[in-house]
Amino acid sequence: PLKGVPSQDDVLGVVNHIDQMVTLLMLELRDSNLHSHYQQGNTATHSPCLEYLLSENLLVKLYDWSIHTGRFNNAVRLEQMKLYELLISYSNALLAHEPVTRPLLRLLEECANDIMPLEVEKKLVVLLNQLCVVLMQNMALLDLFFQPNAIGKNKFIIFNLLIPYIHREGGVGQQARDAMLLCMSLSKKNDEVGLYIADSNICPVLATGLGGLYSLLPRKLGIETDDWYQLTPDDVNDLPALMQLMNSLEFCNAIAQVAHPKYLFLSGDIFMMLIGFSWLDPRTARCTTILG
Question: Which InterPro entries match (predicted)?
Fold first, then answer.
């Protein structure tokens, strides 16, 4: 058991060791012959570093230690995410190993209940995106991350962690939206996932986002040409608020193309409710006429 919070030197020492382990793993995993050999089945021989990582439960021990690091927790959390990113990129079959998946799930569950710095958020979204790609490629792994008997967000932790980021701008938001589309695609392939997502708060989140973006539209358009009658792509690009709204609508449309039928039924009701409220704003008629 730990005696008090580790010092900064202790944390730096562990972080350095993790960096060295990542470097050694990368060197070993670059051996294409070993990589091909491993891909033939889970029973293949691991590289020495990877074998030690798994047999000694290093990821479990690292997580157990990290939760006691106090103000250094995010630094250690970031290093853990880098390590998982490397392992998953090497082979998604590693997720079938409990010494990998169990501490990964605990790490994700911890992230769901915390506020993190931007650097950690970026790495988290990258990891979530990576996991979604893996689940689409190997549906057999879905049972590890979708747990119907779990409580709250932990039922489908990947999906729930993505929700706060889908309205973000920049690379973080785009990766989160790409990953969310993959989650929606999963929902169409698995009824339990589909029903869970349909009963989640994703529909209100998307509708609220659209409403918020709509409220940011300018009240007047500074058009100087007398024969102007509709918005062009160039006009949209010149209006950042409108471009964000159009991008959000495109995202919602993309979700509609791949989502579970029950989600489509619920989202249709919410979208019509949103449209109904928007008609209370006199700007809507003018904008609709212009866009039409």
Answer: FHIP (IPR019384)
CA 259 to chain CA centroid, nearest Å: 17
Model's pTM, two decimal places? Answer: 0.83
pLDDT tens for the chain, residues 1 to 292: 456 778 889 999 999 998 898 888 888 877 754 555 555 545 445 678 888 899 999 999 999 999 999 899 999 999 999 999 999 988 888 899 999 999 999 999 999 988 999 999 999 999 999 999 999 999 999 999 999 888 888 899 999 999 999 999 899 999 999 999 999 999 889 999 988 998 888 888 888 888 888 888 888 877 777 777 787 888 788 888 888 888 888 998 898 888 877 766 555 555 555 555 454 455 444 443 333 3
Structural domain contains residue 200:
no
Residue 7's domain comprises: 1-33+46-97
Residue 146: strand pairing partners: 156
> What are the angstrom distances between the C-alpha of 211 and each of 198, 205, 275?
20, 10, 9
In single-letter form, the type of residue at position 227 comes to: D
Q: Element (H or E) spanning 33, and its range?
A: helix 32-39
Q: Which amino acid makes up residue 134?
A: V
For residue 174, being part of any structural domain is answered with no
In a domain, 195, yes or no: no
Phi first, then psi: what are they for 156, rounded to 5°? -145, 75
Number of domains in the chain: 1
- The continuous run of DSSP H or E covering 227 comes out as none
233 in any annotated domain:
no
Q: Let me know: does 57 contact 97? Beta carbons within 8 Å.
A: no
